[in-house]
Amino acid sequence: MKLKSIASTLLWAFCLFFTFTVTAQRSAKHPEEKLGWKLGAQAYTFRLFTFAEALEKIKSCDLRFVEAFPGQTIGAGSTEKFGYTLSAEGRQLVKKLLKDNGITLHAFGVVGGKDAEEWEKIFAFAKEMGIQVITCEPQESHLDIVSALCDKYNVKAALHNHPDPSHYWKPEVVLNALKGRSKNMGAAADVGHWMRSGLDPITCLKQLEGRVIHSHFKDLNEFGDKKAHDVHWGTGKLPIKEVIAELKRQKFKGMLSAEYEYNWENSVTDVKQSAANFRALLK
Question: Residue span of the signal peptide, if any (predicted)?
């Protein structure tokens, strides 16, 4: 009995040591997870490819989260497009592709609904697919519709800022839209688009304190230029160390969605290097 007890204790100790070792290695490789940050990619980065191909590319960049965008062809034998019009078979295929690649579908956007009925379909689709955040730019007259659906489906809606002159280009407009509405509504902070609009990302983040629930992450070669293009994170005009520090200070929890809109045909290396640069800064 004593021998069995010792053997059991040793086996338990080995399993515990192995678990701790694996966890430590994973934390060192993905330091963002300690902060509650989900580092992934907006599938629009790979818009020239199918969703199936995009997932493979995202996986190769050592990223485990995806933000899907509406209209991308599913692939893997399917010509259907990503969105609420997906058939039952299409939805199952998407779930299989995600599982096979070890990637979580966390967000979906940027979307808009033409009326209450379409917004309902968008939210119902998100709920079924396990999507946590819908990035969107709703009409002002639709904000109450979106707010009610956030609570009904327990799915978050993040207001996204395309550059000036889009409606939500500056934080003041986003904050005004969020007043008195669901706690499941917040901001999808696109730091690159703020730069294109000539807005300081740090100032914008501070203005939105407590309401940032998602981010499209970029670094650009120029500031205040609508034609500025993506560069490897940490090598452009984005004050990336300060952005990281501000997100930490705000105790941000959510997805940082790499949206690399340059070198469209061969951007895997760019995204992979950007993620590596980001993780090195966190360490």
Answer: 1-24
**SS3 (DSSP) at 236:** coil
Between CA 190 and CA 163 the distance in angstroms is: 9
Q: Please name the fold of domain 36-282.
A: TIM Barrel (3.20.20)
For residue 220, give the DSSP letter: B
CA quadruple 25, 30, 34, 38: dihedral sign: negative
Residue 223 CB: number of other CB atoms within 10 A?
Answer: 17
Q: Is 230 exposed, middle or buried (0-12, 13-18, 19+ CB in 10 A)?
A: buried
Inter-CA distances, 15 with 4, 8, 9, 262, Å = 16, 11, 10, 45
The model carries a pTM of 0.90
Interatomic CA distance for residues 157 and 137, integer angstroms: 9
Q: Are 38 and 254 in contact (CB under 8 A)?
A: yes
Instruction: Give average pLDDT by consecutive 10-residue segment, the chain, 283 residues.
Output: 57 44 57 98 98 98 98 98 98 98 98 98 98 98 98 98 98 98 98 98 98 98 98 98 98 98 98 98 96
Q: Helical H runs in the chain?
A: 2-29, 51-60, 88-101, 116-129, 143-153, 171-178, 191-196, 201-207, 240-249, 268-282
